[in-house]
Amino acid sequence: MSTASAPRLTQVRRGPAAAPVRHWLRLFRSELRIIFLRPRNLAVLALLAAAPVFLGIVLWINTPAPGSGGGEGPGIFIGQIADNGVFLSLFAIYVLLPVVAPLAVAVVSGDSVAGEAGLGTLRTLLTVPAGRIRLLLTKYLAIVVFCLVAYAIIALVGLAMGALFFPIGPVTLLSGDTVPLADGLARLALIVGYVVAGLAALGAIGLALSTLTQHAIAVMATVLVIVIVSQILDAVSQVAVIHPYLPTHFWFAFDAILRMPLAWSVVLHGLASFAAYAVIFAAVAWVRMRRADITC
């Protein structure tokens, strides 16, 4: 065999193996375009971006006294905002997490498969060489990317508004320790990643429910009901035994990242809970996609 024919033979051998990857990447790019160009999803992202602006203006007009707030909930950040605008970003993350952010995830995940089935395009999608499992993986990864973009927007807009209306500098953690601004921003990035992991688990629930029906709105409503019921049960002490198993129980445990030393055990416990929900409901969606006729 001549040396000139060797590269050509290598290309022939690599072609079949590379083709599925190209098909999958094309499908993934197409899914991202659908999600981020759909007017409904753009409206949701605009709402999430506008929320920190609104909060920043309100808190600038009614500047909280340093050291006010305290206790639990978003109040733990209010007294810090006047001293450091970084806490406006954290305040926005906390305020939007109970309902508004889950609404965004419900809209995207509920529309992922049910929307395609309702429009009659799912049957065509299943003929793509990427296959059913890769199609399901593509849709889930697109949901995760949407969650990441959504909360990155919240954090960055909140940080910009905080820098505009309030001073920015070394960050005083909830434990009372002061860390450099770079360390505070790194912790903010960790919080965004943690919250996105929790929403990605919710996205897996929505994806699984989306394979059971052709009505995307029904899935969106069901996901929101799950979130609301979970938070209500989490506030009832009489059922404390089930609290660790609720999908929203560890959502607000990210305050452990704002303490010194960082409570990694709490963070890892929350991530393990999110991973368990993601795996279980991704498996449900996988079984449904493989065995049930969801294209009719």
Task: Summarize it.
The chain is mainly alpha-helical.
Query: What ranges have pLDDT less than 50 throughout 5 or more consecutive residues?
Result: 1-13
| Tally of helical segments | 11
Q: Which term fits the overall shape?
A: globular
- What is the radius of gyration? 22 Å
* Strand arrangement in the largest pleated sheet: 1-2
Mean pLDDT: 83
Beta-strand residue percentage: under 5%
Mind describing the biggest β-sheet? 2 strands, antiparallel
Q: In total, how many beta strands?
A: 2
Our measurement of the CA-to-CA distance between the termini, rounded to an integer number of angstroms, reads 53 Å
| Structural class by helix and strand composition | mainly alpha
Order of helices and strands: HHHHHHHHEEHHH
Helix content: over 70%
What does this structure look like?
This protein has 296 residues and is an all-alpha fold. It is 71% helix and 1% strand. The protein has a two-stranded antiparallel ribbon with strand order 1-2. Helix 1 crosses helix 8, helix 2 packs across helix 4 and helix 8 runs antiparallel to helix 11.
Q: Tags for this entry?
A:
11 helices, 71% helix, globular, two-stranded antiparallel sheet
Layout of secondary structure:
Blueprint: H1 5-37, H2 39-61, H3 75-81, H4 86-96, H5 100-112, H6 114-119, H7 122-125, H8 131-165, E1 171-172, E2 178-179, H9 181-210, H10 216-234, H11 264-291
